[in-house]
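Feature request disguised as a bug: please show the residue count (211) next to Uracil phosphoribosyltransferase in the output. Example input:
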Amino acid sequence: MRVHVADHPLITHKLTVLRDKNTPSPVFRSLVEELMTLLAYEGTRGVRVEPVDIETPVSPTTGVRIADPKPLIVPILRAGLGMLEGMVKLVPTAEVGFLGMARNEETLEPTTYAERLPDDLSDRQCFVLDPMLATGGSLIAAIEFLLKRGATDVTAICILAAPEGLAAVEQAMEGRGEVSVVLGAVDERLNELGYIVPGLGDAGDRLYGTV
Ligand code: PRP
Ligand code: URA
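Example output, currently without the count:
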């Protein structure tokens, strides 16, 4: 599995404001979207393109366009929804599918409560969006869902990860096709409640104001 931690002062700056417990929901939402756009630049480095002939005002030339079938973006509800606009801004022709997952706060096991995805993903590049990779349980379940539908090329984009969760995803995805994870930062650890330390708290609650 390929892991890339985007290292850029703008990302670190925005992440610092995002982490701050005094940052209100509207600012938090904007920052998640902006961070997503910055991470999308790294995450889409391998997006499939095909040659296209065009004419500039001066001469004919050849460029590229995003190849068919278009990439599929899969935000993991709820918190991943906050990243969607930041991604489609950069890849407006992509299609969007949805996976709804919730982590049981006692067992930390994820359950899938909603799914709206194409049946056959065998030739689709898939981009999974979820701000938080904590134990890794949700991301492993989401990627496995896509692999079962035939996906062979999956990139997960997360804002923060815990080292324990990242290791769990790496272990689960060993030999399972082309899986990449692009991250804004890898934090210190998970605490006993399964929260990322120092982290940013509960991303879904902070996005949607249910704290
Ligand atoms: C959060 C987060 C991830 C998951 C990460 O979602 O957005 O999906 O927890 O934890 P894990 O790596 O230990 O599985 P949550 O289940 O709280 O749902 P929400 O997005 O609706 O808030
Ligand atoms: N989910 C979150 O939203 N935050 C964490 O720190 C862990 C899981």
